[in-house]
UniProtKB/TrEMBL annotation:
InterPro entries: Na/Glc_symporter_sf (IPR038377), Na/solute_symporter (IPR001734). GO terms for molecular function: transmembrane transporter activity. The chain crosses the membrane at residues 12-33, 53-78, 84-103. Keywords: Membrane, Transmembrane, Transmembrane helix. It is found in: Membrane. This is Solute:Na+ symporter, SSS family. It comes from Candidatus Hakubella thermalkaliphila.
Amino acid sequence: MENDIIEVFVTANWILGIIAVYLVVIIGMGLYFSRRIQESIDLTIAGRKLSYIYTVASTLATWICAGAMMGAAGYAYLFGMQGIIFDPWAAALTMVLVGLFFAHRLR
């Protein structure tokens, strides 16, 4: 019984240590790369140096966020199974249109 509690604390310490190292690395990378950014355009679309596919992927990644995920769950709650269809189809159509007509302008 007592050994089980000690094992839980040891495991928790390892997990907390890994999370702490991860956070330090992420903060360090953020500080290092923040020195390269001169204007907001450098941050948002990489200074117009991305290829077409990376621009589309970046736009898609920007769109997919917690708000979109919570919105899909809200639609499912309000409208049932039909609500699940509303959001993804509209989003897919929007991303295709952005990719076809606007990604080259973002580059």
